[in-house]
TrEMBL record:
Molecular function as annotated in GO: kinase activity
Residues of the Signal transduction histidine kinase subgroup 3 dimerisation and phosphoacceptor domain: 209-272
Catalyzed chemical reaction(s): ATP + protein L-histidine = ADP + protein N-phospho-L-histidine
Keyword Acetylation: no
Organism: Streptomyces huasconensis
Keyword Phosphoprotein annotated: yes
Alphabetical UniProt keywords: ATP-binding, Kinase, Membrane, Nucleotide-binding, Phosphoprotein, Transferase, Transmembrane, Transmembrane helix, Two-component regulatory system
Name under which the protein is recorded: histidine kinase
InterPro entries: HATPase_C_sf, Sensor_HK_TwoCompSys, Sig_transdc_His_kin_sub3_dim/P
Enzyme class: transferase
Transmembrane segments: 40-58, 96-122, 129-147, 153-175
Length: 411
């Protein structure tokens, strides 16, 4: 079960009010709330309180010298029906509270049921209902004590006591309603925070996978292009001198070995689920000389003009980006302009930025067809943009190609 589902479905829904538990159970939306164990306990408690207060009221009305016996019997009958009506408080809280206003006026025994109805109204309905019905309940208190004066207290004291009890019941009910709304608000906030955290984690994972895919493309494209170019040369020149065939076969073997090593490293990172797993040292600008030497050994004509005094002092992230751009540019030149001399120029300083230019003329002869995805330059542009720089490229007159990248270098 996902974390969102566990938030939606708590482990103890029976301990929540039905109005709150329904929010955790989307299957109940649009239908009547199903009573939980807590609801049944609350209903029995309210019924018991109404009966207990009704018995106290019945005892008081029976011993009240101002009330006749027939009126006392009528009072108790009305109170009994009012207590039974408490079970309807969840289904019709407004109707029950309205009905209890005249019932409370006519019967002291129904006082407990009237208090429960008023409390339920304050819990389950907005304040506008509580204000009108509560005001009506308080307004009839003087008339109730005028019809049935209290035997032990004066008329004024009785009115003040009745008003305080009604206000206490209303305030308690509004407090319970506010607490429930607070719980729902906190639940929604927690759910939103959890969803946002899940989205951030998913986005971070997606960005990490894109970074791994980009690295895989940059590394494997360079190796596999060597394989394709030299295999194509052997196919076009089966009568080549033996030393050239041996050198091409050695390049193919070495490139295949390096490609397998890089592929194993990337797969190990993916299986481990940690994009920061250390493997081979990531190349920086200081490794550009080795890259050019490798291309020369593979038969390319590459001229490197590095005007950076200390390539090792270039920040690692900046140097790695520049290295990958140069690697992809040399790979494209090897595929699309074999035999042409490629000029690589690197200039820059802290505060000025790092500028990388790769330029090649048209190939001197026929170009073997090498399959490609066409995503290399798009990936380079995106890589430069993510580093805060820019990359541009265009074809030269006569069939050549020019690529230029600028990357920020903080001082």
């Amino acid at each position: 079960m996902s974390s969102t589902e566990s938030t939606r479905h708590p482990r103890r829904p029976w301990a929540l009010p039905s109005a709150v538990a329904q929010e955790f159970d989307p299957s109940r939306v649009g239908r009547g709330p199903r009573r939980t164990v807590r609801d049944w306990f609350a209903d029995f408690t309210c019924f018991g309180a109404a009966v207990l207060l009704g018995m106290m009221g019945a005892d008081a009305i029976s011993s009240n010298p101002h009330v006749s016996q027939d009126l006392a019997d009528f009072d108790q009958v009305v109170g009994a029906f009012a207590c039974a009506a408490v079970w309807l408080r969840r289904r019709w809280p407004v109707g029950l509270a309205i009905a209890m206003v005249p019932v409370g006026l006519a019967s002291d025994t129904a006082g407990g049921a009237a208090a429960v109805a008023l409390f339920t109204l304050a819990v389950h309905r907005p304040f506008r209902y509580v204000a009108w019905i509560g005001a009506a309940s308080i307004a009839v208190i003087p008339f109730a004590y005028r019809l049935r004066p209290d035997a032990d207290a004066s008329y004024g004291v009785s009115i003040v006591f009745g008003v305080l009890v009604s206000l206490t019941v209303i305030g308690w009910g509004m407090f319970v309603r506010s607490r429930r709304q607070l719980l729902l608000s906190l639940h929604d906030r927690a759910l939103r925070a959890e969803n946002e955290a899940a989205l951030r984690a998913e986005q971070a994972q997606r960005l990490a996978r894109e970074e791994i895919a980009r690295e895989m493309h940059d590394v494997l494209a360079h190796r596999l292009t060597l394989l394709s170019v030299h295999a194509g040369a052997l196919e076009f020149r089966p009568d080549a001198p033996r030393p050239e065939i041996v050198r091409a076969a050695g390049v193919i073997r070495e490139s295949a070995h390096e490609a397998l090593q890089d592929l194993r490293q990337v797969i190990g990172v993916l299986r481990g689920g940690d994009t920061e797993t250390p493997g081979r040292p990531q190349p920086t600008l200081a490794a550009l000389d080795a890259l050019v030497s490798e291309c020369r050994e593979a038969g390319m004509k590459v001229v490197l003009d590095s005007r950076v005094p200390d390539p090792g002092a270039v920040p690692a992230a900046l140097g790695r980006t520049a290295y990958r751009i140069a690697q992809e540019a040399l790979t494209n030149a090897r595929k699309h302009a074999p035999g042409a001399e490629v000029a690589v120029t690197v200039t820059g300083a802290p505060g000025e930025g790092l500028k990388l230019t790769v330029r090649n003329p048209a190939p001197p002869g026929d170009v073997p067809r090498v399959p490609g995805s066409g995503q290399g330059l798009i990936g380079l542009t995106e890589r430069a943009s993510l580093a805060g720089g820019r990359l541009g490229h265009h074809a030269l007159p006569g069939g050549g190609f020019h690529l230029e990248a600028w990357l920020p270098w903080a001082s």
